[in-house]
Amino acid sequence: MHTRKLYLGFLSMFFSFASFIPEVGVHNKLLLAALFYVGVVFISEWITIHFAHKSLLQEIRKSWHNTFAFILTTAVGGLLLDGVAKFLGKLWIYPDWTPIFYAAIFIPGFAAYWLAICESYLAVKVLLDKITPGKRRVGKLHRYERWFYSTLGMCGVIFSLLATLLLLIDFFQQSLPLFVPDDVRVSAPSFQVAFTEVMLLFLGIWFFLEWLEYYRKKTSLIKDIVHHYYTPLIAIVLGSMITSVFMELQNVPAGLWRYTNWPLSDFAVLDMPILIFIIWPLHYITFLSLFRAMTNKESAMIWQSDRIA
C-alpha cells in the first residue's frame, strides 16, 4: 500500500511536467500543478512512513478538528504570503486568473501548496534523522530563554507593525489596485518594490510565532537550534532547494504565476531572479512555525517532540 504511494507520487510528478507541451489550457495548467503537489505529498509520505512510521496526511485526516485546523492554518498562511508579497509587495502576479477564480481556488490551492511544503520538509528531516540522530526532546530550558523569547515576541510585534505601516504608506502612494493582472510597471513605471519592508515583516511574524510556540510550551526552530538540534534547519534548506527547483521548473511553461519587480533581477536562472531561490526557505520557516503554533498533535512532527519543563 505504501509502495503504491511512492509509484503514484513519481507518476504524478512525471505527468505534471506535461506543462511543457504547447497549447495547454489554463485549467489544464492548474490540473498539472495539482498533480505536482500530489506527487510531492505521496513521495514524502512514503519516506516518512517507511523510515519513521509517521504520516502527516493521516494525522491531518484523523479527525474533523485536525482537518479544520490545518485548512485554517493554510488559509492564514496564504493570506500572509499573498497579502504581503503579492498584493502589497507586487512580487508576483497570476496572469490568467480573475479575482473570482482566485477567490474560488484560494483555500484548496494553498492547502495543497502548504501540505507539499510540510511534507517535503518532513521527508528530508526524517532522512537526516536516520543519518545523524540528534537530540529529540527539550527537557529543560536554559535560564535566559524566558526573557529571550519575550524579547523576541516584542520585537516581532514591533517589526510587524512597522513593516505593515511602511507597506501601506508605500501602497497608497502608488495608487495601484490590489489585483494587478500584468506587470505592475506597465501601470506605474515609477513603482518601487518594498522588498526591505516585506523581509522585515517576515522577521516580525517569525519572531512573534517563536514567542507563541514558547508560550504554548512547544518547541520551535530557534529552540531546536539553541538546544543543539540542527536537523530542522538543515532540512529546511535542503527541502526548499529541492522543492523550489522542481516546482519553479514545472511552472516555467505553465506560467500560473509570474515573478515581477524583484530586486537584482538581472541575476536570473530560467528567467527567474536567483534571489527567489535564495529566499525560498522563508516559505518553510514561516509556515512550519505557523502550523506548529496554531495546532497541536497534527503538527507534532515539525520540530522536536514537546516535553518542556
From TrEMBL:
It comes from the Bacteria. Keywords: Membrane, Transmembrane, Transmembrane helix. The keyword Acyltransferase does not apply. The chain crosses the membrane at residues 7-24, 30-52, 64-81, 101-127, 147-169, 189-209, 229-247, 267-291. This is Uncharacterized protein. It comes from Candidatus Kaiserbacteria bacterium GWA2_50_9.
